[in-house]
Predict the structure.
Amino acid sequence: MRFEIKDRDGLARIGVLETRHGKVETPALLPVINPNKVLIEPKEMKKLFKIDILITNSYIIYKNKRLKEFALSKGVHKLLDFDGSIMTDSGTFQSYVYGDIDVDPIEIVEFQRDIGSDIGTILDLFTNPEESYDETKRKINETVRRARISSKVKGEMLLACPVQGGTYEDLRAACAKKMSEIECDVHPIGGVVPLMENQRYDDLAKVIISSKRYLPLSRVVHLFGAGHPLVFPLAVILGVDLVDSASYAKYARDDRLIFPWGTEKLEDLEEIPCNCPVCTSTDIKELKEMDKVEREKKIALHNLYICFSEMKRIKVAIKEGSLWELVEEKSSLNPMMFDALRVLEREDVKEWLEKFESISKKSALFYVNPHTLHRPIIYRYQKRLFSVYRPREKEVVLKEEVEKPYSRYYREEWEKSKIDIIVKTPFGPIPLPLDEMYPIAQSVFPKNIDEESKILSEKLIKEFLEKFELKETKERRKGKRDLDLDLDLDRVRYIIDMQFGKGVSDILLDGEVKIVKSKSTGKIRNVYLNGKHILSMRAQDGLFTLKVDGGRILHTYYASPRFRVVVENNVSDYIKNGRNVFSKFVVDCDSNLRPFDECLIVSEDDDFLGVGRCLLNRDEMLSFNYGIAVKTREGVKDGRNN
């Protein structure tokens, strides 16, 4: 299977999955096609919604003599008259709804292979959330057994092996680990429809997390029966790549219309709050009086317009780096969705999510609700500050938040005092030199945040003072700082330590330091050490890019694997000449590196080859065989920019 990441926002990723019938861009919505009752033809869907993948049920085809013979002779693509990628399910959901089904688990996989499915699914055992621990465990063992056998008969077909386990997080994790050992390509998260039908979104979040975190990152993750677009952003932010839905048709049969905030019964509406092509060409009165068959198709089309529009919105948010805002917005529409965000506030979950969070983003951080302060990027800021902060004195001055940048108001006081100024903000404590780095400066909060966030902020400030044994004083102690430091040099020191680690500033600034500032903005642009250009500061996020001479210093002083991405020796010359690093050539990587972190690129012999910017973290680099792992900025031979 060929799958690579093209863009990302944390675990959410815009990727490209290649099948025998073309490329599929993820995250993708797969409309479910019932081969016995095709409400909207796949060809029409492709024309209207530009779909490149759909899902149908191989068991339904298998049990219908006419459909079975046609599919075996001409293929499932001819049967559905669709030239894109087709995924097939195996009948597991039918077994959940109707009881045992009459089909051999291996035979149904071979059938999917023989009818030309691009992605076939094993016949797993559906684990109902209400089942006992022992029964769930038994079903997992049987599902894994079937997956192992099925992987041997799949041929060229991509194989989907679902992760089951009910609501038992340890069993989900165990199942995911076992599935990881099997040669397959896609991992649907199964057994979740009852959770979504009962709006148990907190349990759904736990199920996705306990499954995703133990699966290979290079494999595609699919949420079976996601149904409603309200769930899509939550699923995608937790690393789901594919969702399927039959709800567009199921709701249409019951005269229910999907909207971004929920569903509405047609009979309860006096106006349709929608501007999709269906709703702009048909008024509410016409729709209610329409023939049942025609009305069902109209509503189904409306439902698809909403679903695909919401998926587009998610992709835009990933590219902008604003998906968390969308997730929190959805949680504000439904109390049960907010329960799901509470799951994401667990310490272990935030620690896991932080590993995939980019160092900075294209868009500013916007406050939405109390969950905002639990986002991975804010969690990272707080953890790093508590790790790297080095107080100059045992007293600090606490200042109230003012208009950004804070140094506009407090700069003179900082430079004339030996006592650090700490600004009290929704993020918690912010030392003045950090006021221009992402996401501090690039954030938008209301004048008055909610009480829960206010309490959290105050708690962090209290913990900060206690950890470093600091006392608050309202009087500044006059006198020049040690070494005659000014705010610019302090800013450089603070940001280096926040970005690269505690004490790294002592190494990168050990000598004659020259700071070059922009003539137009007055902001720091470049840092020189002993006449050599070692760092440049990015205007958009207030963080540093690493130059080759800065990389040499870090490489000389710090032992492997710190800051390093290690590549195979045979590609060393390419990297020296400024070529990008592809995942398949990565041998190892510093586990502390995060997406968009600055890094050193070295050979297996630890020869310094160049500097660049990570696009993936360590686990992703070692998992993927396709795509760019590091965007090389400068190679040691010619320093060409990419």
About this structure: The chain has a mean pLDDT of 94. The domain at 547-642 is CATH 2.30.130.10 (Archaeosine Trna-guanine Transglycosylase; Chain: A, domain 4). The first helix runs from residue 42 to 49. The chain has three domains: 2-344, 350-484, 547-642.
